[in-house]
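Hi! If you just cloned this repository, the fastest way to understand the data is to look at a raw example. We've pasted two of them here, unedited. The first protein comes first, obviously.
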Amino acid sequence: MNHATENDAVVRFHGVTYAAPGLPAPIISGLDLEVRRGETLVLLGESGCGKTTTLRLINRLLVPTGGEVLVEGRDTREWDAIQLRRRTGYVIQEAGLFPHFTVERNVGLVPSLEGWSEARTRERTHELLRLVGLEPERVAARFPAELSGGQRQRVGVARALAADPPLLLMDEPFGALDPLTRAALQREFSALQKSLGKTVVFVTHDVREAFLLGTRVGLMHAGRLVLLDTPQAFMRSEEPRARAYLETLRLNEEILAALAPGVENQMGAEDGG
């Protein structure tokens, strides 16, 4: 397992446990983790393994019941919670936009709260809408209900970037989209991250998405990190749960291989016709 140096680590978990009242076992148990500056660290795992809880511990939506979480070298309990969240972009499934705000007001919310002028906020909002592939002239005055699912997610990414935060937290942001839109947004986000160089913690249960977007992939199970490595090393791992995820990729390949002869025959018949 690789470790970041003190200067490289934007987020550090030291022996973190999170136990919710009324549950028989901790959701997170003894977690040690470092997120390096400029990387996209993907947390992969089944539902209930602790991925989203880990994310919420970073921006102090939750506070650890044991150990400590450091963001930029400071314990999250020492941060002003509002200031910490404004320095941390947050993107969730279905974008989480305010339905009664226009697109422009949704994207410009944090800059406005930070005291930016109206002109500067509007300029930044339009810049970011273009960056995520939307035309401000067409969407800025619309409300979220007037957008497609893919457009709402693009607006959600723009809003998370609005005040230029050094850290982005993304909780299955593309999980509710249809496969074609999801694949398009994955490609767009990958290109965007390469150009912006933000530090990103990205939660998913999709191993393909993890390999496509992640600098490193952390595999979680029952509140523990069982593997943390590059996608290339993950594919070589003998860890049983990692092997189980890799089997899903092989299954897809087998399905495509089984379908291929039928597709080729059909195409041949069409050409002959």
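Ok, and the second one:
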Amino acid sequence: MNKEFSAITGDDTTPALSIIPSPDDSPILSPILTANPHIDPLAAIAPRTAFPSLADDVLARIADDMNRQGFGVATDCIHPDDLSALRRFIEQAVAAAGGEYVAFTGHDSIRGTFLETLALSPEFMQACRTIYRHGTGRTPPTVPFYQVLRCLSGKTGERHAFFFHYDSYVITALVPVIMPTEGKRGDLMMLPNTRRIRTTYFRNLVDKILLDNKVTQVALRRLISWGYLRPTRVRMRPGNVYFFWGYRSVHANEPCDHDKTRATALFHYANPHAGSRLRGVARGTPAP
């Protein structure tokens, strides 16, 4: 028995036996789970979650990467089965739109999909709250995500590429679902951490006006194409989750080929100006 057990675990010590209750309360002997120190017995029998529980030091490293290089990555955090179900949803939506651009905004628009499950995941929310705390030094607010699912496809998809902007939320968590692997891939481009979190909505509004106009947009595209500006390019892989300071970073996506689909889910966390009266007036919904 020891030889067979050693071949499985790489450990030639005599396995200790543990008793794990079965559904009918009869004991089951499980030597493998307890003898291998790399396997957490509880994790091995626990149901799969939408997002893993990441250690604080891992999340601190992600926040450090966001500060240092513009983005941090949680690798292999989305299960292939969840991605497959989401791809089917997206492919049906794009087909219904004649192979053109489709976007879903707000949690109601993706109700019943894995994106709703992920938004409600305590582990995913805790990851964003911890990154926020490490990155800002502030207490993370108890607020829901603002969600967007963007599906670039066809000629209309190209119109939604190369639009450089700041997000309204401090953290952007980007979940790639469908990414082309050939030709134009639709990579994320960013000029990371080009501003601080503004103390007033007015300062934020000025930043956006200076950026969100035709002159600035054309200038940025030309400076990048001529090589005078070298943005950080992020080639994304489904299964990973990419975190960056969306509020602080100028970013856009490159276009993808017309016959390809690029689909990404965005989870925005913590709007620093959510209670601003000026913001409410500008949007036609005055804050109370």
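That's it. A detail worth noticing about the second one: Confidence is low (pLDDT under 50) at residues 1-11, 13-40.
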